[in-house]
Write a structure and sequence with these properties.
single chain, five-stranded mixed beta sheet, 34% helix, 30% strand
């Protein structure tokens, strides 16, 4: 099981792995609603070729990712395939599905 700190550290790491060229035309906030004792609410904002992150639930998210913190940790660290997690119901996407597909390429593994 991932610790709360390990889960929290995933988001700055995603910003570090952001590939601006893959986010051309994206202006969106993505919310992450992670359940479990080690979970929480986080967000990533992609706009103007940059990405930033923070904690808490944003009011203007165009897409929300819901999962247990452990399942998201496994996806974000490459231990679990995102599409497989989605197909098996471990990862739920609410909102812009096109952005969900694009998100896979905007952040290097």
């Amino acid at each position: 099981m991932a610790t709360a700190e390990e889960v929290k550290s995933l988001f700055p790491a995603m910003v570090d792995r952001f590939i601006p060229e893959k986010a051309d035309g994206v202006d969106a906030t993505i919310a992450f609603d992670l359940s479990g004792d080690n979970g929480g609410s986080f967000w990533i904002r992609v706009a103007d070729g940059s990405a930033e992150t923070g904690e808490g639930a944003p009011s203007n998210a165009v897409m929300t990712v819901r999962a247990t913190a452990d399942d998201w940790h496994a996806v974000a660290t490459g231990q679990m395939n995102a599409m497989q997690a989605f197909m098996t119901g471990k990862l739920k996407i609410m909102g812009d599905m096109g952005l969900a597909m694009k998100m896979q390429t905007m952040f290097a593994q």
